[in-house]
Amino acid sequence: MILSDSIVALSSGRLPAGIAVIRISGPKTRFVVEAIAGGMVKERAAAYRKLIATDGSVIDHGVVLFFPGPGSFTGEDVAEFQVHGGRAVAAKMLETIAGFEGVRHAEPGEFTRRAFLNGRLDLVETEALADLVNAETEAQRRFAVRNAEGAQSELYAEWRRRLIHARAMIEAEIDFAEEDDVPGSVSDAVWSDVRALIGEIDRHVDGFRAAEIIRDGFEVVILGAPNAGKSSLFNALAKREAAIVTDEPGTTRDLLEVVLDLEGMRVWVTDTAGLRAAPGKVEAIGIEKARAKAGGADLLLLLEDMALPVDPGAVPSDAPLLRIGAKADLVAGELLVDRAKLYDVVISIRTGTGLSDLLAEVGRRAAASVGEIGDVLPSRLRHVELLKDANDHLRTALAGHERGQELRAEELRLASDRLGRITGAVDVEDMLDVIFSQFCIGK
Length: 443
Ligand SMILES: Nc1nc2c(c(=O)[nH]1)N(C=O)[C@@H](CNc1ccc(C(=O)N[C@@H](CCC(=O)O)C(=O)O)cc1)CN2
Ligand SMILES: Nc1nc2c(ncn2[C@@H]2O[C@H](COP(=O)(O)OP(=O)(O)OP(=O)(O)O)[C@@H](O)[C@H]2O)c(=O)[nH]1
Ligand SMILES: [Mg+2]
Description:
Cofactor: K(+)
Family: Belongs to the TRAFAC class TrmE-Era-EngA-EngB-Septin-like GTPase superfamily. TrmE GTPase family.
Distance between the termini: 20 Å
CATH superfamily of the largest domain: P-loop containing nucleotide triphosphate hydrolases
Number of helices: 15
Mean pLDDT: 92
Largest sheet: 6 strands, mixed
GO molecular function: hydrolase activity
CATH architecture of the largest domain: 3-Layer(aba) Sandwich
CATH topology of the largest domain: Rossmann fold
Bound molecules: the ligand Nc1nc2c(c(=O)[nH]1)N(C=O)[C@@H](CNc1ccc(C(=O)N[C@@H](CCC(=O)O)C(=O)O)cc1)CN2, guanosine-5'-triphosphate, magnesium ion
Shape: flat
CATH class of the largest domain: Alpha Beta
Low-confidence stretches: none
Number of domains: 3
Keywords: Cytoplasm, GTP-binding, Hydrolase, Magnesium, Metal-binding, Nucleotide-binding, Potassium, tRNA processing
Number of strands: 12
Subcellular location: Cytoplasm
């Protein structure tokens, strides 16, 4: 592939900053380094240089790095100018470099796009790199870095190899059918491996929910009768007076949300209107919202006033549930011991009792909901759709005895083609614009 344009962009973040990194990639890179840094620098070693504009004036003093292609991030010649991170310094550098013939400003994601086109990364690794740049929580970072290192790609490549092997065996059987050279037990082994693979792909697809929880967060909804102490708990978790608290039942009507970081997971906590029969008009709307929110929750905190338990009615969700005894400070002695047995966690917002236990338990549940740290999960709906497609073809292949071995082999080919589309090994031109639009400029 000939990519004649060289591209330049600011690859570091918001200015002003301590240092700004201006990166160039493409055939003009050496020429630009020579022109701006007053001569070539040693490969892959930091050089401190005076940086000169086209009119001979000094732009800044900075550190210059040169990575010759193909052993660079993009696979082309790449150089970096690490300059003082002022807006005018960066602007002058960009203007000077883009002023050279054959150099232009990069599109968002264009450096990474070149890395992909030069075979430095596959599509799944590229997506993982976008996730890594966007990661805000420890779980997001861990997940993204493993896939950027190729964990997900390796899994799909391994599945693809198995399918290509299966197809080769079936085609051999077709070719040698008359001669009876390929014993039936070989094709039995092939189809039993295909059956096993279908199961593995199904299980992997089920992991998408875990990937979504890592990306979007774990949804916790506080439910209970009016006055149970829901908003008081919510404020304690939010560490501010986010919700109105009064001794009047029916205070909260709208859904209120706060996001916490527990065990490296993003955890959303929602406060809701107290559940009760025959509320007023506004409160009824609030209760309906609470029910809907609870329906999509990953965990419910069902609060009850230990001093004055009120039945909140049926819980409007089959999400896992923690029973929480609230206002523990209002009960004492034997009654406290007795009632505490009804709950998973006992808390008091007044004294602070039980709050850290509750947070620890919610954090444990959030972390457990995404499985083992090492699990490889599909990270995009795109992957899930292609995996399901692949499995549809495998099921057709498995079921299709009467359709003849040729057609079954063709279904195996279609399945491995779908896997190839995930990593970009097969025909992906149409997906590239969507994928690279996820990046910022300079990446
Ligand atoms: N300054 C700087 N830091 C950066 C990047 C960058 O482009 N510049 N990266 C950009 O995203 C990431 C690192 N990515 C890189 C990937 C490959 C090579 C590279 O030169 N690869 C060669 C040599 C490998 C080796 O010596 O072991 C190769 O693979 O052949 C460099 C950076 C994160 N940090
Ligand atoms: N003693 C004591 N009182 C509490 C505790 N937590 C909440 N309260 C009181 O209980 C009353 C109701 O608290 P809220 O947090 O507003 O209850 P809620 O469940 O949000 O009520 P609604 O929004 O009406 O459904 C307020 O007067 C709180 O001060 C606690 O741990 N101990
Ligand atoms: Mg409330």
